[in-house]
Write a structure and sequence with these properties.
globular, alpha+beta, 3-stranded antiparallel beta sheet
Length: about 70
């Protein structure tokens, strides 16, 4: 199963646009979640992208592990 969406314009302070793609597939007795996030950062934030990417990755992994506890 797949869900995806995109936002072409936003007033959010960190990014100009973003998209997310969620793919769910059978994984033995459970479900495998593949979660892809793409964004166009505002120009002033682009130099800090490597740090932002690392911190966002940690947040998303924590959120995904929370799903495992709920299921």
């Amino acid at each position: 199963e797949r869900w995806a969406f995109r936002v072409d314009e936003t007033g959010a302070p960190m990014f100009e646009a973003f998209a997310e793609d969620y793919r769910l597939s059978d994984d033995g007795p459970g479900t495998l979640l593949t979660w892809t996030v793409a964004m166009r950062l505002r120009a002033g934030l682009r130099p800090g992208f490597p740090l932002f990417r690392l911190s966002l990755g940690l947040v998303l992994r924590r959120a995904a592990s929370g799903l495992a506890r709920v299921a």
